[in-house]
Amino acid sequence: MVLNPSGVSGGDNVVFSPAPMDKSARIYIAGHRGLVGSALWRALRKQGFTNLVGATSSELDLRDRQGVLRFFKQTEPEYVILAAAKVGGILANSTYPADFLTDNLQIQLNVMDAALATGISRLLFLGSSCIYPKYAPQPIKEDSLLTGHLESTNDAYAIAKIAGIMQVQAVRRQYGLPWISAMPTNLYGPNDNFSRTTSHVLPAMIRRYEEAFRAGENSVTNWGTGTPRREFLHVDDMADACIHLLENYDGPDQVNVGTGTDVTIKEVASLVASAVGYEGTVHWDHTKPDGTPQKLLDVSKLTESGWTPKISLEQGLVQTVQWFRDNVHDSRT
Ligand SMILES: NC(=O)C1=CN([C@@H]2O[C@H](COP(=O)(O)OP(=O)(O)OC[C@H]3O[C@@H](n4cnc5c(N)ncnc54)[C@H](OP(=O)(O)O)[C@@H]3O)[C@@H](O)[C@H]2O)C=CC1
Ligand SMILES: C[C@H]1O[C@H](OP(=O)(O)OP(=O)(O)OC[C@H]2O[C@@H](n3cnc4c(=O)[nH]c(N)nc43)[C@H](O)[C@@H]2O)[C@@H](O)[C@@H](O)C1=O
After folding, report:
1. Residue 332 forms part of a structural domain
2. pLDDT digits (tens, 9 = 90+) for 255-264
3. Is residue 135 part of a domain?
4. Active-site residue flag, 175
5. Does ligand 2 come within 6 angstroms of the Cβ of 154?
6. Domain residues for 183?
7. Is 31 marked as binding a ligand?
8. Is 216 labeled as ligand-binding?
9. ipTM strictly over 0.95?
10. Is residue 38 in a domain?
11. One of 157, 209, 249, 278 is an active-site residue; which one?
């Protein structure tokens, strides 16, 4: 069953017919080297797509409005997946809120305005689960958006993402283009950011436990109290969900993408220890922020369309630890 069988969405006169994307279609993946962008590139290549377009941030800074418009005119993509953003974990977000707000607003405005100016009919914007209120009823439904105060550690980033959702909805209403938005839960996997300070919890713990294991140390210290709950989706499942949405979904509302289950940070720390083989003691630094107590997404809208994740957290962690061992050698950052 497609999410929008009528082909016409409520509230806007968009017409979309669910169909597989043509394997020769030009698909621009903004942020193609990142955690999500590289997973999309792998997945689309594996499915036989031959006309993928990407540009690194040094080749094209998406904050450069004229440069972005020139790029769109030169490359003429048929699909755009906006997976480029300034992204970071709880400490980075709470330390640099102005950067997270302005960079992401600029990237979103420039990419979506250039897509509109060059008539891109299909665009997928990636937001984040942090757009929902700190104390939204759990699991969080899409219509919880804007019903309460945001979590302070990432409210600037969340506002930028909410603006992105609004820009997609406004283009649909004013121009009738079938642009869509997806809201991923916490993601992890190959090509993640493993920085000690700016990373999310899973890559941070993988690095911390692996370095302790290699050094024969028997003590690690994690952030916060370990009591918050988080939902973790492997990035290859995320890429698969993006392709599913592009070929099946049309509607003004953002679609939650997740597993529908969550664990405490203490539980995930134990899973990381098992995946690494670390058997030492674990300490918790309560001076670091916990962030929102829980942000489990209600993914019924996505599962009812026939999509479910395939990679369990246990399997995904073992695979990501192995990827880290094979690929991350510079541990000074
Ligand atoms: N990781 C997560 O847990 C979650 C991520 N998301 C969202 O998913 C999307 C992808 O995130 P993720 O893959 O984790 O992020 P990454 O940090 O792994 O990748 C971000 C990408 O954006 C590019 N980028 C950043 N700034 C600029 C710029 N100024 N100009 C051009 N390119 C830029 C980077 O390019 P380069 O590598 O060339 O520098 C990089 O490839 C984002 O929208 C994020 O908000 C949502 C929920 C959870
Ligand atoms: C995807 C989502 O990601 C961010 O929200 P977050 O989920 O709170 O981010 P996080 O993964 O950094 O932390 C999750 C939990 O884990 C605990 N924690 C323990 N030890 C470490 C640790 O070593 N590093 C980090 N980062 N967290 C740790 C940490 O204290 C917190 O309780 C948003 O900023 C925003 O980017 C967003 O949308």
Report:
1. no
2. 999 999 999 9
3. yes
4. no
5. yes
6. 2-188+234-260+295-311
7. yes
8. no
9. yes
10. yes
11. 157
